[in-house]
Amino acid sequence: MRRFNLTAAAPEDDEADPEGYRAGMDRFGLKIGATQLGASVYELPTGQSICPYHYEYPEEEWLLVLSGRVDVRTPEGEEELGPMEVVCFPFGPEGAHKVTNRAEETARVVMFSTKPQVSVAFYPDSGKMQASTGNPDDRLMARRESAVDYYDGEA
């Protein structure tokens, strides 16, 4: 049996992340042998978010606050969550969310998610969508307005 201690997580920053989205991350789902669920510990400094406001198909995500406080934006508005509170973001527009730390102290959270092989994410604020197939070569991020007709470019 593989195990992972959440208190021993060592989130690492990605230097490519822009200001406002600099959250350290330690993906541990694969470390414990998970194939159907993903799980990551995030460390969120003040003023940083995990990712832009988005929703997905068919992925479901859960957020568990380990320490600190975070603001969670959903279609209903913003709410603050504290230690040991957990919420679920279902697939589709009703599950849209963004997690931001506006508190003085660094927050530590866990995100769990289902891992479908094929998924689509929508970013309402920027009008983008991302299609993923499990093959990195087939991943596509595009703006909705770049849509073309079904037969566009076909012979």
What's a quick, concise take on this entry?
By secondary structure, the protein is mainly β.
Describe this structure as you would to a colleague.
The protein has 155 residues and is mostly beta strands. It is 0% helix and 39% strand. The strands form three sheets. The protein has a five-stranded antiparallel β-sheet with strand order 1-2-9-4-7, with no helix packed on it. A four-stranded antiparallel β-sheet has the order 3-10-11-12, with no helix packed on it. Strands 6-5-8 form a three-stranded antiparallel β-sheet, with no helix packed on it. Strand 11 and strand 12 form a beta hairpin. The radius of gyration is 17 Å and the shape is globular. It starts with 23 loop residues before the first strand and ends in a 12-residue tail after the last strand. The relative contact order is 0.19. The model has no long low-confidence stretch (mean pLDDT 97).
Question: SSE layout and pairings?
Answer:
Layout: E1 24-27, E2 37-44, E3 55-57, E4 61-67, E5 70-74, E6 77-81, E7 86-89, E8 98-100, E9 107-114, E10 119-123, E11 128-132, E12 140-143
Antiparallel strand pairs: 1-2, 2-9, 3-10, 4-7, 4-9, 5-6, 5-8, 10-11, 11-12
